Amino acid sequence: MKNPFLTRLAGWLALLGLGSCLAAAALFFLGRIAESAYKRAFLIGSIVWFVLAAGRKMASGRDAPRNG
User: pTM score, two decimals?
Assistant: First the structure.
C-alpha cells in the first residue's frame, strides 16, 4: 500500500517527535525544566519518533533494498 499523504504526515510527525527530544535536552541543559520532566518528555518523544518512523516506512510500501 503506497500512500504519499500518510508517508509525508508520518515523516513530519516523526520529525516533531525528534525535535521534542532535542528541545527537552536543551531545556534541561539550560535549567528550565526539572530532570523528571526531561525524562518524561524524552521518553514520549522517543516513542513518537520510533512509532512514526516505522509507520512512515510501512506507509511508503517500499521494501528493503536487495543485494543480488
Answer: 0.75
